[in-house]
What we know:
Elements: H1 2-8, H2 12-23, H3 55-68
Amino acid sequence: MLQKEKDSLQNNNYVEQVARKDLGMVKPGEQPFVVKDLNTYEGESNTTVAPAEDASLVERVMEAIGSVLP
């Protein structure tokens, strides 16, 4: 198992994936976003609507999501 992990660490794409997922690292110029409280419970909702003045934040989040999706 350790040999397989060692071999995987020779692949730059794998190293980047581990750095992003496990270590929370980002590339220079990227903006990290932390989304909290996504869980909803029966009868409760944690959903909020962004006010109009926060539209630029929403646009930036959508842009960030679009940049990581194929």
